[in-house]
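Note to self: keep these together.
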Amino acid sequence: MTPVSVIVPVLDEADQVPETLRPLQSMRGRGVEIIVVDGGSSDGSREIAAPLADRVLQAGRGRAHQMNAGARVARGEIFLFLHADTRLPPAALLELGHLSAGPRLWGRMPLRLSGAHPLFRVIERGIRIRARLTGVVTGDQGLFVSRTCFAAVGGFPEIPLMEDVALSKRLRRLARPRVLRSVLTTSSRRWEQRGILPTMLLMWRLRLAYFLGADPARMARVYEGRERASGVSAGSTAK
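Structure:
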């Protein structure tokens, strides 16, 4: 089995960490390493994660910083970057472990959103179609990449938002992403808290703004609700 390192960036996710890591415990010691990288939590996330992970690190805030920090110490030949609110079936790790960690290996998994609203099924299909057509993988789709492939593109660009999109653009120059059979489940909490349609519109607007050159730092403030969406000006060059 090819060694796999699961790298989980967290920030104040004490309520999510146990539900994400407990299903993976049976795979520890079977070629799977779990690394949690904390970005400065104040809710005890690090302490909760400690018995459920092989390593718990502290890094600068920001998923890109955290995931790069985890990759630097990872022992596996395949890195799986897993969001703290995403549930991964252990079978996915077995599937990954049977892949050859070549210099062009990267990909994703089919995504299911946790909510029961019928609109979530429409969103899931849309995400799968978009990923298939564009070759862009987002973090909630279980992005995985071989060690050599990750190193070849220089890891995640350390930007405040869209780091997964930026990495995908680098990786797809090497190969199209592979798609596993195993389906993961990502929490629909943001959609439910902010409203399904408003969240869809916000994400479309942010993605368009990113492709048109908007500043990722400003986009991150909009995403986190610290700035109005009108503050994102498509075409403003990122510094």
